[in-house]
Write a structure and sequence with these properties.
Blueprint (H helix, E strand, L loop, with lengths): L7 H15 L12 E6 L4 H15 L2 E6 L10 H6 L6 E5 H9 L9 E6 L1 E6 L10 H10 L3 E4 L2 H14 L2 H4 L3 E4 L4 H6 L5 E5 H4 L5 E6 L8 E7 L6 H11 L5 H6 L3 E2 L16
Helix pairs in contact: 1-2, 1-10
């Protein structure tokens, strides 16, 4: 994947404005550097890996990052990390997962900012026959013909397991040959030949070597997942957290988001009213 530069001067100018407006202690040319702990799920990870270093260079802050699923019982899932008391300032995850954390007192009410929308994609091992999933009939044939299917333990997998198979009328046929992947990218499992077909967010499949990402699943059964940012309830650096979130939601971040397979939802100020609609 090509490393995307969005222009250090532009980013520095943007972040200085954010810092001066959101964090009065961060003054241009003399900002107090802070360690900012970020917990991110896979949907935004590729874009965050591009944008995070730009933010660090512009502000002097250091981002300390851990990754895990938006939901579920895997030990590295974001809710489990927070339950263990791991340090966190910024949370990047599926909107439904963030809403649950807010309801459970693990994230700050009113801090949710929607960053991007993501589609579920399908992948096969590199060199394997490429199924035609451009129509529902082709998609059905591909799933019935596959000997094994893998899906994530996070938002897309929850939907596939609990709803998509049932809506397609294929739960009895597909469930026995499907498995949920914990604490690993589904694409990596497909690349090793441990599953013929893998489902995950497009942004999580595209960076994986050894697979062919066929594309989004048909719109008739597609689920759009909104990925959001929020501030952890026990954040040690809330001002720096707000600045990072505002940067990720800004127009300057849109190119990096699109390059990594998600569609930006546009700039939104953390001080403005936030959408409370659930992830679709």
């Amino acid at each position: 994947m090509r490393v995307l530069s969005i222009g250090r001067r532009a980013v520095a100018g943007l972040v200085v404005v954010l810092a001066s407006g959101l964090a009065p202690g961060l003054a241009p040319g003399g900002a107090a550097a802070a360690d900012v702990h970020v917990l991110t799920s896979g949907g935004l990870t590729a874009a965050y890996r591009i944008l995070g270093p730009e933010f660090e260079r512009a502000t002097g802050h250091r981002l300390i990052t851990a990754q895990g699923a938006s939901m579920g019982q895997a030990p590295d899932a974001i809710p489990q990390r927070l339950a263990r008391g791991e340090p966190a300032d910024v949370l990047l995850l599926a909107a439904g997962g963030l809403d649950a954390l807010i309801a459970g007192g693990k994230a700050v009410p009113g801090s949710r900012v929607d960053i991007a929308e993501s589609l579920i994609g399908l992948a096969v091992r590199s060199g394997a026959p490429r199924p035609d999933i451009s129509t529902m009939e082709g998609f059905r044939r591909a799933l019935l013909a596959a000997k094994s299917i893998a899906y994530s333990a996070s938002a897309s997998g929850v939907y596939i397991e609990a709803e998509m198979y049932r809506r397609m009328g294929l739960e009895a046929e597909l469930a026995p040959k499907s498995r949920k992947i914990l604490s690993e990218r589904v694409g990596s499992v497909v690349a090793r030949g441990e599953a013929e077909i893998g489902f995950q967010q497009m942004s999580e499949l595209l960076p994986i070597q050894g697979i062919d990402t066929i594309g989004p699943i048909p719109r008739e059964v597609q689920q759009v997942t909104v990925f959001s940012a929020g501030i952890a309830a026990n954040a040690a650096q809330p001002a720096a957290a707000r600045a990072l979130i505002a940067f990720l939601a800004s127009p300057e971040a849109r190119e990096a988001l699109r390059k990594t397979g998600v569609e930006p939802m546009g700039a939104q100020s953390p001080a403005s009213p936030l959408s409370t609609s659930p992830a679709r």
